[in-house]
Write a structure and sequence with these properties.
- The chain is α+β, with helices and mostly antiparallel strands.
- Helix 10 packs across helix 20.
- It is built from 26 helices and eleven strands.
- The strands form four sheets. The protein has a four-stranded mixed beta sheet with strand order 8-9-11-10. A three-stranded antiparallel beta sheet has the order 2-3-4, with no helix packed on it.
């Protein structure tokens, strides 16, 4: 299976760096810049085209999505080449930076291999997280149905039982809620990988995440570092070393299986670099238009990955725009006009933010979920300074680098506006951590008021600051060694200093005899990820024994009959992982009258006509319990489990009229509903 996984990563790299690179080159970008922004360009184009095909009723596959997109970009390249727009006199990223570029990939490969791939219990294992049940189920349906839309009537539909009952990401819904929008860029891309290598969606998911961590994110960050620090190679080296070391960014998002959010944030560096490059340093209106067109495609990729990444991009770029206006040569001698432009830009940003806040289509995001404040002001400040944010452990060395980087930026070692971006995003985290109510919703509602997502964005913005400080450390080490050992020894010293930093930040948890245990940030993430992926892990709510039971149940049930399940006992994963046609495929259930009646009164089936009608209308023929009558808060069920919501299911026994026990093992049960209740009377 690991060979299939490796092929999946290769397929992902091909998808990310073919169409996007060709389009970027046709728009006149340098080679390194084209590589850097190829991932968001490719993802945006694939998502738009797949949605168009689905809305037209055409079944999607990797072939009819990839080939037309690549063909269109190839045509653009040929036209641009004939017009002389492909070649440029000088690349923004000189070829002598190839070693630094390789270093970005090497660090990403090392860290990802250790933390993520090393935590997998096999290439087809997966993170047993609340959101991942939905992701795997959605992927399974997309691969099977060929409906890859991000908007329209088919977005949320999982399965049509043939009797009018439709299953959506949140369970069974009524006909009036079928239209909508769901950001599916990552799902579309992962479905393409599954189609190319013919692998399970779990393997495709792991390969997809790996490709973004090892390739898309580091090359985008390299492109951004070239734009931010064109004359400071040491800062570029530092950014490459520090880019993967913030536990609150990549690794906590992976632990929560927030893969769409992770992917969108991995694309922010490239999109930011493209915008900055498009708005400064180049002459010619036509070229700027082409650059901004590419930036627009990047915005599409962010919006279709996770819309809150658009707002994070705004927070990152607003200080840059203010700096650019303030430093404009045309406005330098016109103070009143410059002040007016600054005020007008601020008013525009605030107006657009308020407009988005009041937009009807954003209300389900802003008010649909609520994460209460968890800390007072001093504690939240400490969480920011130590980079723990809410869910991670303190990273003191990295926090010191960020603080030092802020000082270096103030001293003119790089763009000062980077510090403003980081402070602004940290302030949003502070609000989310300490406040409830209007200000929390207004400022962080686009992130679901989720400190985890806001903190991840703040950690991402801290990367250039830490990279600036580490670059100064590397510069001093190289200068000291060069005086006595020459250039080769200086390069070796930089590698040694980088290795020391990586080991110090990534050091696993340890115990000091006589003092106690120390849980490091990466030690925590490694332990938790390994536990959530291992079939015998303490946090595993879908164990190997339960998967074996599901396989036996599937042999008895077949592929079509519907099985009622309690999703939080682990069975929500049984559709995406093991293809059992369970009724609930996400931990969250969409409330309908039939669903509520079944969950609370199913054991009354033999005597309650309303329950009989509900069972017949939903097509349920079996009932599966992976944790029979498990008490609330038990280790083998998700914390979201509420026993009162499932009393009608958990009260079923082999003596309950209307049910036949057909499979039993330990605390797992499979009941068959009497066939006379299968169809409407």
């Amino acid at each position: 299976m690991w060979v299939i996984y490796a092929l999946g990563v290769g397929a992902a790299v091909l998808l990310l760096f073919s169409s996007g690179y060709v389009l970027a080159r046709s728009l006149g970008l340098s080679r390194f810049a084209s590589i850097g922004c190829s991932a968001p360009l490719a993802l945006g184009m694939y998502s738009l085209w797949a949605t168009a095909l689905s809305l037209l009723g055409i079944t999607c596959s990797w072939l009819n999505v990839f080939l037309p997109v690549f063909g269109m970009t190839a045509i653009c390249y040929v036209v641009a080449w004939r017009m002389g727009a492909v070649s440029r006199p000088k690349d923004v990223s000189p070829w002598q930076d190839a070693g630094i570029f390789a270093g970005y990939i090497a660090v990403a490969l090392l860290v990802t291999g250790y933390v993520f791939v090393g935590s997998l219990d096999g290439a087809d294992s997966f993170v047993l997280s609340f959101d991942n049940a939905y992701h795997l189920s959605r992927l399974e349906v997309m691969v099977g149905s060929g409906n890859w839309a991000t908007i329209g009537e088919g977005v949320g539909i999982y399965y049509d039982y043939g009797n009018g009952s439709l299953v959506s990401p949140l369970g069974v819904v009524d006909q009036g809620r079928l239209s909508g929008f769901y950001p599916s860029a990552w799902h579309i891309f992962t479905a393409m990988i599954a189609g190319i290598v013919k692998c399970p969606v779990t393997v495709a998911s792991n390969a997809s995440v790996t490709s973004f961590l090892v390739f898309a994110y580091p090359v985008g960050m390299f492109y951004l570092s070239q734009v931010l620090f064109p004359d400071n190679k040491w800062a570029r080296v530092g950014v490459g070393v520090c880019a993967m070391l913030f536990a609150s960014f990549q690794w906590i998002l992976i632990e929560a299986a927030l893969f769409p959010n992770l992917v969108g944030m991995c694309l922010i560096p490239a999109a930011s670099a493209l915008f900055i490059e498009a708005t400064q340093g180049f002459e010619g209106l036509f070229r700027r238009i082409r650059m901004l067109a590419a930036f627009f495609i990047c915005l599409v990729a962010l919006a279709l990955s996770q819309p809150n990444c658009l707002f994070a991009l705004v927070v990152f770029l607003v200080p840059y725009c203010l700096w650019a206006i303030g430093c404009s040569q045309k406005l330098r001698s016109r103070r009143i006009l410059r002040a007016g432009c600054l005020l007008a830009f601020i008013a525009l940003v605030v107006s657009l933010w308020v407009l988005a806040y009041h937009a009807p289509f954003m209300q389900s995001v802003i008010h649909g979920a609520f994460r209460p404040a968890y800390a007072d002001g001093p504690q939240a400040l400490v969480d920011v300074l130590t980079l723990a944010f809410r869910w991670g452990n303190a990273q003191l060395l990295l926090g010191a680098l960020v603080a030092a980087g802020a000082v270096f930026l103030l001293l003119g070692k790089g763009p000062r506006w980077l510090l403003a971006s980081y402070v602004l995003m940290s302030f949003l985290f502070f609000v989310s951590a300490t406040r409830d109510g209007f200000f929390d919703y207004a400022l962080t509602g686009f992130w679901y008021t989720d400190q985890q997502r806001v903190g991840a964005a703040a950690a991402l913005f801290a990367v250039p600051l830490a990279g600036t400080a580490f670059g100064e450390v590397a510069r001093c080490a190289a200068r000291a060694v060069r005086r006595s050992g020459g250039k080769t020894s200086a390069r070796i010293s930089v590698i040694v200093v980088s290795a020391i930093c990586l080991v110090a930040v990534m050091y696993p948890s340890f115990h000091v005899n006589g003092w106690g245990s120390v849980e490091t940030a990466f030690g925590r993430e490694k332990t938790r990820l390994s536990g959530m992926c291992a079939e015998t892990g303490e946090r595993n709510i879908y164990s190997g024994d339960e998967r074996a039971f599901v396989e036996q149940a599937k042999a008895l049930v077949g592929g079509e009959d519907t099985v009622l399940n309690i999703p939080v006992d682990g069975s929500a994963f049984s559709f995406g992982q093991d293809h059992l046609n369970v009724y609930y495929r996400s931990h969250r259930v969409g409330e309908t009258e039939e669903g509520a009646l079944i969950r609370k009164h199913l054991s009354e089936l033999a005597d309650n006509p309303s329950v009989q009608e509900a069972v017949a209308s939903t097509g349920i023929k079996y009932v599966m319990l992976l944790d029979y009558q498990n008490e609330e808060g038990g280790r083998t069920v998700h914390p979201a489990y509420d026993a009162d919501e499932w009393v009608g299911v958990n009260s079923i026994t082999e003596d309950t009229p209307g049910f036949e026990l057909v499979l039993s093992q330990d605390d797992m049960r499979l009941y068959k509903i009497d066939e006379k209740f299968w169809a409407p009377s």
